[in-house]
Amino acid sequence: MSAPDTAATLRDAVVSGARSAEEVCREALDRLERLDPALHAFNTVTAERALAGARDLDRRRAASPRALDSLPLAGVPVAVKDNLCTRGVRTTASSRILEHYVPPYDATIVTRLEGAGALIVGKTNCDEFAMGSSNENSAFGPVHNPWDRTRTPGGSSGGSAAAVAAGITPVAIGSDTGGSIRQPAALCGITGLKPSYGRVSRYGLIAFASSLDQIGPFARTAADAARLLDVMAGEDPRDATTAALPAPALQGALTGDVRGMRIGVPRRLLDQGLDPEVREAFLAALDVLRGRGTTLVDVELPRARYAIPVYYLVATAEASSNLARYDGVRYGFRAPGTSDTDLRTMYCRTRDLGFGPEVKRRIILGTYVLSAGYYDAYYLKAQQVRTLIRQDYDDAFTRTDVVALPTSPVPAFRLGERVDDPLQMYLNDVFTVSANLTGLPAISVPCGFTRGRLPIGLQLTGPGFDEAAILRVADAYERETGWWKEVPE
Amino acid sequence: MSYEPVIGLEIHAQLLTRSKIFCGCSTAFGAPPNTHVCPVCLGLPGALPVLNRQAVDFAIRTGLALGCRIQSRSIFARKNYFYPDLPKGYQISQYELPVAVDGALEWTSDGQTRRVGITRVHMEEDAGKSLHEGFADAARRSYVDFNRSGVPLVEIVTEPDLRSAADAADFFERLRAILVRIGVNDGNMEEGSLRCDANVSVRPAGATTLGTKAEVKNLNSFRFLQKALEYEIARQTELLEEGGTVTQETRLWDAAAGVTVSMRSKEEAHDYRYFPEPDLPPLVIDDARVEATRAALPELPAAREARYVAEFGLPKTDAATLVLRMPGLDDYFEATAQASGNPREAANTVLGLVRARMNDEGIGSVDALRAKLPEARLAELIGLVTRGEISRPVAKDVFDRMFASGEPAAAIVAREGLAQIDDEAAITAVIARVLAEQEDAVAQYRGGRTATFGFLVGQVMRATGGKANPKRVNALLRQALEAES
Ligand SMILES: [Zn+2]
Questions:
Q1: What global pTM score does this model have?
Q2: I need a labelling partner for B483 at 20 to 30 A (CA). Which of A470, B148, B450, B463 fits?
Q3: Are B44 and A103 inside 8 Å of each other by CB?
Q4: In a domain, A273, yes or no
Q5: A347 neighbourhood in chain B, CB within 8 Å
Q6: What residues form DSSP beta bridges with A264?
Q7: Region A470-483: what's the mean pLDDT?
Q8: Domain residues for A72?
Q9: Mind listing the pLDDT tens digit for each residue in B49-78?
Q10: To the nearest whole angstrom, how far is the Cα of B84 from the nearest Cα of chain A?
């Protein structure tokens, strides 16, 4: 299989009239139909919606040849994680409790993507309510890694990552609460970007942990990621936590020139359970960056070692509250036979049957964390440490332009291998959760393979709202290396 | 041993914004169930709150009117609990940093100054409404109307500074007058737009520590508040006098039975797991906004009450009644006073004829009164009395007709021939006739029983159908009686 087209290539072909949007769309839907049975990347296929959008674009272009010139994603097929609301299209968050839930409205980013000409071909599988690092917590079964179908694609946005890695769509949308875009991007050999907190509207994203969640793109190249983020980013009157900043215009930042930029390396963090092959690939990637004219500098992030416990206190606390609305009263699943029982029985059975074990574990943990008598010791303390971790990064950014780390300490592991050890599973997030706790932008780019041909990811974290810095370095790295062109068989 | 009650109140007031606190849905009362709803106030997955600026302005106004300090930075918090009318499983409220703190309300009662500290004013969203009656399957099912979900509220919490049930009712009445006056609340307790809970304990007189308190809910009128507190104070006092102890619990006022009943104990109390609302940034209010709001505050009820006494010469009790008893009655009075140019007559008419008629006809609000009888119409009537064109007894008659038909007073007077008789010759003729008929009374008067004079005046008035100018009758009657003796 040759390298699939990028979003930029497809878009230009559609805008110029070289290809029709419908043809591009049908090809994506064909690939989906052919490849997905083995991958299980999609919960729902939205062929009709995508084709209707494609035909509309073609009609507009037929009426006026330059009609699509202003659409940065004209005719680009995109897969959207199933925790983003789509009007009239089932949106499940891969949970039994929302199995048949159909939202009456579109998430802001869905409106923006479609407004830019994108064609949503389906809703992708993920860990239930985005809680997990392996996609095995989906109520509908796991996604399989296109590089090795016995292995995890990572999580929680595993379906979106697998869809792009398998070449079904050139780009996809995920959400990242503790690494849920970057880690599956790394494990699937593609690019994944978590924007700064507040850069992209969360309106219509089914919340896991509100102060950590961000929506971001998966792509084959940094340039495509920038193209998507330019469309998705910006203040939204429906989300009070979006930043009032002008559109970032990131595509112009990808000059390929990174000479003089400083790459910070927190070497002390590299002792944290790092796979030797991942370490090797990471150090090689640093050499490549140095070769492009950057300077490597040592940085200390002394409090980053507390990131995992802090993350699991904050995230579970917020999740316990965010998931309270799934109570069987107004929408979603209600346990059979409980409509005429007392209220408490209805609540308990509905939530017992509707949620999977990992979601229940986190709700219970989070409820405990916020309980009277424990709040100060856990939640409050965690928030204080969170502030200190942000200070560490702010200090580091006085001496460096970006911080480099491996994205995941290990390559894709086998499905089922870690499901019985939640703590081990949580440690997969060791390098990714800091970006969520601090709100900083971070990207994962492909940086090589293990000898068993499993992809490895390089993570770059930048100062707040400086997506341009990490995208520029990622793009320069891609220009120097061919990892991003590799495709699974 | 004598016991002293200690009372603090928590008042929830719906803010009169047009739209809800975190979405654009209408707050209008009385719409068909679940028609003023959207993804945000239904708590649909993915929906997010956005704060209503007007609600913040109203909260600032409330804080300032209660003498509070407005915090430059306040934060919203989630109060977590499960209930079918709470769509998100949490209520967005304020907890550790409310919008306003450290105020007080002062007033005089029986010549003594009362002062009640205001601990805090915070903003929050209302829940939906559970409906348990009026459905075919109401025995097995309840229904929920989310029109009210997300209506903005302020919660006002007082210090435990109240020392009697009567003071508590007084305070609540004065607070209501303030909220209505500053335009943030409609003062309607029947529709639940103003609600009150009370924390009450008793302690030996002179003690400085607090006794164990009970929270009493469902106190939705001044009378219920006073009755419930009287009951609760007596109940707790009796318990202590018998050597028992008060249990910390939440109690519900049963208005029909006139008692408070236990609702839940302290052990059953919710752990609300408050934490800062991550979907809303901190609320930052700068000094300029506070000062602009302060400058725009209207005259508050206490100042108004004092002005009615000083400027119009109204008795204190009349001034208080106008300002406190019914929301907006003071505005109605002022408009009438201004249009008629006779504030005292206007006050007497509003407090007398108008209130009596409202009671008789069950008119519960000033808006409804205004619809029946606009201030300008009432002022015309008062003008006729002031200028001596009709007598007071006739004025009552004209008022009744005017109220029923909506016709202007002057038109009624003209059509019915009710204009005051002020003609000397005409009145003298009537007097002559009355004196001739009432020989006994005249003899009594001349014999020194001057009290009979009033009786004779009444006879003359009756003979003119109440239309004679009473002053003129007095003078001419006295002349006639003196002249012939
Ligand atoms: Zn609404």
A1: 0.91
A2: B463
A3: yes
A4: no
A5: 82
A6: A297, A403
A7: 96
A8: 7-257+470-485
A9: 999 999 999 999 999 999 999 999 999 999
A10: 6
* ipTM for the whole complex: 0.96
Whether the pLDDT of residue B458 is over 80: the answer is yes
Contacts of B90 in chain A (CB under 8 A): 321, 324
3-state secondary structure of B214: strand
Residues 319-358 of A with CB under 8 A from B: 320-321, 323-325, 327, 329-331, 339-340, 343, 347
Distance of CA B216 to the CA centre of its chain: 21
As a whole number of angstroms, the distance between CA A156 and CA A143 comes to 10
Residues 6+ apart with CB under 8 A from A319: A129, A131, A208, A209, A359, A362, A363, A366
Q: How far is CA A107 from the centre of its chain?
A: 16
Number of structural domains (chain A) is 1
Contact B90 A321 (CB under 8 A): yes
CB atoms within 10 A of CB B28: 12
List of chain B residues whose C-beta atoms are within 8 Å of the C-beta of residue A211: 278
Domain ranges of chain B: 3-290, 299-391+399-407, 424-484
CATH number of B424-484: 1.10.10.410
Give, in degrees to the nearest 5, the angle at Cα A237 between A236 and A238.
85
Higher pLDDT: B279 or B453? It is: B279
Burial environment of residue B36 by CB neighbours within 10 A (0 to 12, 13 to 18, 19 or more): buried
B280 touches chain A (CB under 8 A): yes
Give long-range contacts, CB 8 A cutoff, 24+ apart: B143-146.
B143/B33, B144/A329, B144/A330, B144/B84, B144/B85, B145/B33, B145/B34, B146/B34, B146/B37, B146/B41, B146/B42, B146/B85, B146/B87
> What average pLDDT does the segment B460-484 reach?
84
* Higher-confidence position of B337 and B423: B337
* Dist CA B315 CA B333 (whole Å): 15
Give the closest of A241, A324, A372 to B89, CB-based.
Answer: A324
Distance in Å, alpha carbon of A219 to nearest chain B alpha carbon: 24
Q: Which helix (H) or strand (E) holds B385?
A: helix B375-386
A66 lies in a domain? yes
Residue A110 belongs to a domain: yes
Q: Which residue has the higher pLDDT, A147 or B326?
A: A147
Known catalytic residue at A156: yes
A123 among known catalytic residues:
no
CB-facing half-sphere around the CA of A286: CA atoms within 13 A = 20
| Residue-wise pLDDT tens digits, A29-69 | 999 999 999 999 999 999 999 999 999 999 999 999 999 99
Q: Evaluate whether residue A282 is within a structural domain.
A: no
Reference A166, options A79, A243, A73; nearest CA is A79
DSSP-assigned letter for residue A325:
G
A contacts of B33 (beta carbons < 8 Å): none
Note whether A324 contacts B271, CB cutoff 8 Å: no
Q: In the predicted model, what is the mean pLDDT of residues A84-95?
A: 98
CB of B447 within 8 Å of a chain A CB? The answer is: no
Whole-angstrom Cα Rg for chain B: 29
- pLDDT tens figures, B283-321: 999 999 999 999 999 999 999 999 999 999 999 999 999
- Parallel/antiparallel/unpaired status of strands B249-254 and B214-217: parallel
Which CATH number does the domain housing residue A82 bear? 3.90.1300.10
Do strands A295-298 and A262-265 pair parallel, antiparallel, or not at all (unpaired)? parallel
Of the candidates A138, A156, A157, A196, the residue annotated as catalytic is A156
Angle, CA of A13, A16 and A21, to the nearest 5°: 55
DSSP A205: B
Asked if the Cβ–Cβ distance from A325 to B89 is below 8 Å, we say yes
Residue A104 alpha carbon to ligand 1 centre in Å: 13
Interchain pair B50, A240: CB under 8 A: yes
Which tokens sit at A419? 């499901």
Joined together, the tokens standing for residue B475 give 């003078």
- B271/A98 CB distance under 8 A: no
